[in-house]
Design brief:
alpha+beta, four-stranded mixed β-sheet, two-stranded antiparallel ribbon, 9% strand
Length: 181
């Protein structure tokens, strides 16, 4: 399990504690989720979004508020499972920077969502650049059912560094082995 994220995002730390309590596997490095876990988390997120829709359309403020918090809880949990906890403050700051450089839509036709409540990307807008937080990446897949890392070819990687034993095929291990030889 990864270390508890040191972050200004208190909610992320709360969800980390929850996942620790219930032994929910979390990647220690940025990783994609295996297909089964991805499908589960996507369905979970969609379920919470649907609960918000139902509560809001029935004018149930308690239910709407609960659904929004649950949606955030599941979202943070998914980010932690993907090993994004340590990078979260940087990821957040970069999205905030990009979002704050947008402008309010002057008219509905300027918005792809056709609303003057929207904010849009002005000329010269720069999208978030997450390379400082995530690196260039050789992204692994984290199999939450076994708490192991696999590559796109299903070959195990980084079992030594990430779970404490077994063969390790990650770039860090290969570099370490070359210096030992």
């Amino acid at each position: 399990m990864p270390q508890q994220p040191i972050t200004r995002h208190g909610e992320l730390a709360d969800v980390w504690a929850f996942q620790q309590k219930f032994n929910v596997p979390m990647a220690s490095v940025p990783s994609f989720l295996d297909r089964e876990t991805f499908d589960f988390r996507l369905k979970f997120l969609q379920e919470e979004l649907h609960e918000f829709f139902v509560a809001h359309t029935s004018r149930d403020m308690h239910g709407a508020a609960d659904a929004l918090v649950d949606l955030a809880y599941v979202l943070y949990g998914t980010a932690l499972m993907m090993g994004l906890g340590d990078a979260w403050p940087q990821l957040w700051a970069e999205v905030q920077r990009a979002n704050m450089s947008k402008v309010r839509a002057a008219h509905a036709g300027e918005s792809k969502r056709e609303s003057t409540l929207d904010v849009v990307k002005p000329a010269g807008w720069k999208p978030p650049d997450h390379s400082a937080a995530l690196g260039a990446g050789l992204w692994h897949v984290f199999d939450a059912t076994t708490a192991a890392y696999i590559t796109s070819t299903e070959r195990p990687v980084c079992l030594k560094h990430c779970t404490g034993g077994g063969p390790c095929y990650c770039p860090e291990s290969a570099a370490a082995q070359k210096t030992e030889d």
